[in-house]
Amino acid sequence: MDGLYNVSSVLELRRFELPPEAVLPAFLFAALSYMIILFCNLVLISVIALNKSLHQPMYLILLNLPVNDLIGSSALFLQVLRELLTKSRTMHYSSCVTQAFFIHIYAGGTVFILTAMAYDRYIAICNPLKYNTIMTHAHVFRIITCLWLTNLAILSVLFFLLLRLPRCRSELTHPYCDNPSLLALMCADVTVNHIYGLFTVAITQVVANVIIMYTYLQILVACFRSKHPDTKSKALQTCATHLIVFLLLECLGLFTIISYRLKDISPHFGKFMGMSTLIFPPTLNPIIYGLKTKEIREKLEAFCRNKFFKSLSGQ
To answer: Which residues cross the membrane (predicted)?
Structure first.
């Protein structure tokens, strides 16, 4: 049996079976997508970080979203670009585990951050007079620390359970490394891993969905009771944008989880949906939260105007 587990530390990649003429367009598309994600998220981070007027609870929590998006998209695109550029068909097992860890950090982090944002909006709209008392900087710091530490703790146990298993396969077909694709390489009983993985996903999803649905339901009730049209429209807009992002992530994530257990799904469609989870939310989040948030949009417009006039005066 020892010989069965004596496998190479290098994995064979069978995930992008592209004809030679499609490699360059695929590389250009991936590079452009990554550049857009980098630019949009770094702009959002810079605008919030450099403007003291935006150092408020809402924006401090929001700041975690583009940081988290950069973690997930970088974990995906850096490996994809390397694979397409070098035409490599191999990957070190340690690199695969690292990629999987950061992709799961992104997936769990997004759920926790969106839940924290929903809680913040609930306090702001349903308890506006107590908002400054409740959402102090110390409380916001505790929320941010708690969501990252909880995410790290859950994933540390997940990957501890994974790395204890012996591996006897070396072929990867999924477009990126994650816990299910790594478990497929193992040749031991993975029942404990599946139970823990499904249990943590179920618990986090139930808690997140209950909190988000409850807070937005309360926000909607408060909106319809409000006699101020501006407050009502602003709150409804906040609800709509948050729910769009959350539902998009939930649908893509749920399909990715189900696709591992359905054998009749087209492998190409499954790969596309799996990668969509790491492409569309990181691209849309800074646009939705940046352009749809009046304060951030105004700061960005002011920054661009100042740079434009400085460049004209320099000429």
So the answer is: 22-47, 59-81, 101-119, 140-163, 195-217, 238-260, 272-291
Give the torsion sign (CA, 114, 62, 120, 106): positive
Quickly tell me which residue has 């064979």 as its tokens: 12
Task: Give the separation between CA 204 and CA 113, rounded to whole angstroms.
Answer: 12
**Residues ≥6 apart with Cβ < 8 Å to 293:** none
Token couple for 184: 């497929």
pLDDT digits (tens, 9 = 90+) for 60-93: 999 999 999 999 999 999 998 998 888 878 889 9
* Domains, the chain: 22-295 (1.20.1070.10)
The model's pTM is: 0.87
